[in-house]
Amino acid sequence: MSEHGRMNRRQDHRQWTSLPDEQDMPDRPGRSGRPDQSGRQDQGTRERLLAAAAEVFAEHGYNAATVREICRRAGANVAAVNYHFGGKDNLYAAMLDHYMRTCQAAFPLDVGVTPDSPPRERLRAFVHGLVQRILGGGDDPVSQAHGKLVSLELIDPTPACDGLLREHIAPVNDLLADILRGLLGPAADDPDVLRTCLLAIFGHISFHYNGRAAIVHFYGHEELTPEVLHRIAEGVTRFTLGGIMAMSGTAACQATGPPTA
Questions:
Q1: Three-state SS string across the chain, please?
Q2: Same domain assignment for residues 129 and 229
Q3: What is the CATH classification number for the domain harbouring 139?
Q4: Which of 17, 96, 119, 199 is the most buried (most CB within 10 A)?
Q5: pLDDT by 10s per residue, the chain, length 261
Q6: Which range marks the domain in which residue 221 is found?
Q7: Residue 7 falls within a domain, yes or no?
């Protein structure tokens, strides 16, 4: 190999193995600056990477998104993703996890109720909280990017989907199933009835996000103000309660057989 070729390979190696710059690295012995200041810078870089990752992954998709573009938008050294997350795959999973935990903290599904509250009150609190989680970000680009990525993950899963389902979506599903059992009574023993009710509620709410273009086309654009979100949640709750009554009656009719002449 020529000396020129060896020099190019050494340059390429340094480019991909270089450490993050000072703002991305915690203080070490002999490094100037105070540790607490470095810690804040370190956390700030991590948060910028998470926000930039949401936008880049949403724009380009999981496969086409590049670490270099994410770091460019975050204003971080190209090695920062490896330093903070251990690679693109882990960054993507961490971004989804961070978003879901942020939503859970901001919009709990049990505001004003306890497990012993009447099931109707628990359902209303659940629906209001879930509407806020899915639609409460409004036109904020980072929130929109996160919502888009969660929807895409459920349509075309990546390896991060298992963790998303297990850690974040399964507990929500279990909570709603518990609420529905209190409303359906014995009809909840029929797995088809319980599943139909679960999917109807999740589908009704999520269409307000996934079907936004169709809603705007047929009914006009409407800002997702707190008043509008409240109206959507109340409509879903009322519609759901009526459907639960119907499903309970259907289950009872099936248990006793078809009516006789």
A1: CCHHHHHHHHHHHHHHHCCCCHHHCCCCCCCCCCHHHHHHHHHHHHHHHHHHHHHHHHHHHHHHCCHHHHHHHHCCCCCHHHHHHCCHHHHHHHHHHHHHHHHHHHCCCCCCCCCCCCHHHHHHHHHHHHHHHHHCCCCCHHHHHHHHHHHHHHHCCCCCHHHHHHHHHHHHHHHHHHHHHHHHHHHHHCHHHHHHHHHHHHHHHHHHHHCHHHHHHHHCCCCCCHHHHHHHHHHHHHHHHHHHHHHHHHHHHHHHCCCCC
A2: yes
A3: 1.10.357.10
A4: 96
A5: 544 454 444 444 333 333 334 344 432 333 334 445 556 667 899 999 999 999 999 999 999 999 999 999 999 999 999 999 999 999 999 999 999 999 999 999 999 999 999 999 999 999 999 999 999 876 677 778 888 899 999 999 999 999 999 999 999 999 999 999 999 999 999 999 999 999 999 999 999 999 999 999 999 999 999 999 999 999 999 999 999 999 987 554 454 444 444
A6: 107-255
A7: no
Note whether 83 and 125 are same-domain residues. Answer: no
Q: Give how many domains the chain has, as a whole number.
A: 2
pTM metric for this prediction: 0.78
Same domain, 123 and 55: no
Answer yes or no: do 44 and 159 share one domain. Answer: no
In a domain, 30, yes or no: no
